[in-house]
Design a protein that fits this description.
Elements (H helix, E strand, L loop, with lengths): L15 E8 L10 H27 L10 E6 L5 H11 L3 E6 L3 H4 L6 H13 L2 E4 L7 H13 L4 E5 L11 H11 L3 E4 L8 E3 L19 E3 H13 L17 H9 L2 H4 L8 H9 L19 H4 L13 H49 L5 H24 L2 H21 L10 H4 L5 H13 L4 E2 L5 H58 L6 H31 L1 H21 L7 H26 L9
Parallel strand pairs: 1-2, 1-5, 2-3, 3-4, 4-9, 5-6
Antiparallel strand pairs: 6-7, 7-8
Helix pairs in contact: 1-2, 1-7, 5-6, 10-12, 12-13, 12-14, 12-16, 12-18, 14-16, 14-20, 17-18, 17-19, 17-20, 19-20
Length: 625
């Protein structure tokens, strides 16, 4: 991939909302032709209301979006009946149409019996900006339709269900897809084909009592579409609202403030110098790693992540995929978050390493002034005072600028965006709102969802681009680099842990030796003191205090760094990803199986991050006690 940094940053997302449709297929007994025009007009009204609400949400949060007007993307399978009414309504409003087909496009056309229907299908298909052709088969047609419905609900913010509310034809039918969407937390706009004026929003995100009027689906809260569409779209699109702090003197760390900080990092990144080399020096001494130029000045943010983004670029070179979006949206945003995570991670680690060693230096200055350089006692007190001021200033600055929180958040964001690279190619945009999937909103999840909306679904024929071939590319470009990283990380962390442990023990052993030497010199003094004995009596206390101070600093760094537990976590993650890698080395497997393994790999990597956040979540910079 060609690297360029001519893009405008900070990387604010465009305001996009994705709408999908499921509903009755063409059936004269349930969906007569006379209803098509009426239903298409109803769909136009719904999309206009949603579009207006999306633009209002964008204008209400202008500082977090680009200046472009909010836009909709419409997803349809182009089946006769409801799907086509929705597609025609979208095109009538100049809304982008994206299509998800259960079969290869030519095979799917055999679903339509009349020549006019086939012509309309081909016309709508040509109007679509993206087309996924799933590897369905006629031998398992119901499962193929179900797969298309599942990909649809995983790629939209809102699902419009044009449906009479009755049980359908079982697997892959409208009722089945609606139920799966509701259980996942997708808001469903239920439009009863025989009740034009009473569309309802059914969603787990509402706090109302569940509705019990539909026996064919899982009961969920329901509200009027007309009265609540604005609130729904605002919840889906707008970034997390600030949460009032209980402590009025606490630093503002609301989700909104953290997002503003992320967008404000451009000023910092104009200067790529890293002025805190303590971590690099520490790793050089304790971690068997050489000092690199990038420890002091980083590369261009795209060049710095080119290797970790993927070594072969096979996915990005497939014609018709998402080459432009991968290069101009996803990769730059991943690179930005990844570099910021490395930047603040280096500052945070350098901060606590400095604190512990400076604390040991303060103790050494104190004892040296008392025992050795009496004439320089005042100067040493001044040095000790300066060191203590440095510790306090370093801690205050790190907490004030939130090195710790930014490092954790930006690393989490980078890994979410990394996982999006393959998830979006399988149609899984993970757009379920945070209010449904978590106890509190998160700007990281919001930003990842906003990026996924811009990406949309790809144009790909999974009959031509074979599923196992896709799996092999996933292994090569996603799993292998992560397995290699965790294997190296485990060895590196164990090395650091071992060296800190050995040096700390050596310091305590030497302290014990000096204590015995001091006692021996004190005992033998009446029998004639030697030069060595006099030196031990005079200066031994310096070592018996300084060495434990150094050992304590090493122990503090080891405790703060959690090197052993991180190494164990990397080992577990490596084993879990290796198991997925082995599972994808079989000769043939289904699209569903590939989806499961890709989602499992993402879950493993995010679980690693979750464990990592628990480990470090409460380890802010502190003044060493």
């Amino acid at each position: 991939m060609k690297t360029t940094s001519s893009l405008i940053f900070p990387p604010k997302p465009s305001a996009v909302l994705r709408i999908g449709v499921v509903g009755h297929r063409h059936d004269p007994s349930r969906f007569p032709e006379t209803m098509s025009t009426l239903l298409q007009n109803r769909m136009v009204e719904l999309l206009q209301r949603i579009d207006s609400a999306a633009e209002a949400a964008r204008q209400g949060s202008e500082e977090f979006f680009t200046s472009h007007r909010a836009r909709l993307s419409f997803v349809s399978a182009l089946a006769e009946g409801s799907d086509r009414c929705g597609a025609r309504a979208a095109l009538q409003l100049a809304v982008e149409l994206q299509v998800i087909l259960p079969f290869e496009r030519k095979e799917y056309s055999s679903d339509f019996s009349t020549e006019g229907s086939k012509i309309e299908y081909a016309t709508l298909l040509r109007s679509a900006s993206r087309v996924i052709e799933l590897p369905g088969s006629r031998e398992s047609a119901a499962s193929s339709y179900l797969l298309a419905g599942q990909v649809t609900i995983k790629s939209v913010d809102i699902l419009i269900a044009i449906w009479d509310g009755e049980l359908g034809n079982g697997l892959g039918g409208t009722a089945d897809i609606v139920e799966q969407g509701l259980k996942l937390g997708v808001p469903v706009v239920h439009v009863d084909v025989f009740d034009r004026d009473h569309a309802k929003i059914r969603w787990l995100g509402w706090l109302d009592l569940p509705a019990n009027d539909l026996s064919s689906i899982t009961p969920v809260p329901a509200r009027s579409f007309d009265a609540n569409v604005g609130q729904l779209v605002e919840i889906l699109m707008k970034p997390p609202h600030p949460v009032p702090l209980k402590d009025p003197h606490a630093i503002d760390v609301s989700e909104e403030k953290l997002l503003k900080d992320f967008f404000g990092t451009e000023r910092m990144w104009r200067w790529r110098w890293r002025w805190r080399p303590e971590q690099a020096l520490f790793q050089f001494v304790f971690g068997s790693r050489g000092i690199r130029r990038t420890d002091f000045r980083t590369l261009d943010y795209l060049q710095a992540t080119e290797g970790s983004w993927g070594s072969t670029g096979q996915i990005d070179n497939v014609p018709g995929f998402l080459p432009n979006d991968m290069r101009t949206i996803l990769w730059p945003r991943f690179a930005w978050a990844d570099n910021l995570a490395n930047y603040y991670g280096q500052y945070y680690r350098s901060g606590y390493i400095s604190n512990f060693f400076l604390a040991a230096l303060a103790v050494i200055c104190s004892i040296v002034g008392l025992v050795v350089w009496h004439d320089f006692k005042t100067q040493l007190v001044i040095v000790e005072l300066f060191v203590l001021i440095l510790i306090i200033s370093n801690t205050w600055l790190g907490n004030r600028r939130r090195w710790h929180r930014r490092w954790l958040d930006y690393r989490h964001l980078a890994e979410r965006l990394r996982n999006l690279r393959f998830a979006v190619l399988l149609g899984n945009l993970n757009l379920i709102p945070e209010s449904v999937t978590a106890t509190a909103p998160s700007w990281v999840a919001w930003y990842a969802r906003a990026t996924a909306r811009e990406m949309g679904v790809p144009s790909i024929d999974f009959m031509q681009w074979k599923v196992p071939d896709f799996g092999r590319v996933f292994v090569l470009e996603q799993l292998d680099p992560q397995i290699e990283y965790h294997a190296h990380n485990e060895l590196h962390l164990h090395s650091v842990e071992h060296r800190l442990h050995m040096l700390g023990n050596c310091a305590f052993v030497l302290t014990i030796a000096f204590c015995f030497a001091y006692l021996a010199a004190q005992y033998l003094k009446p029998f004639g003191a030697t030069t060595i004995g006099m030196l031990i009596l005079q200066y031994g206390v310096v070592f018996t205090i300084s060495l434990p101070a150094i050992a304590t600093a090493l122990y503090g760094i080891k405790t703060q760094g959690e090197f052993c537990s991180r190494a164990e976590r990397s080992h577990r993650t490596m084993l879990e990803l290796t198991a997925i890698r082995l599972a994808l080395q079989t000769q043939t497997y289904s699209f569903n199986y590939l989806q499961i393994q890709v989602e499992k790999a993402a879950s493993v990597m995010l679980d690693d991050l979750a464990d990592w956040r628990v480990t470090y979540g409460r380890r802010r910079l502190e003044n060493p006690a």
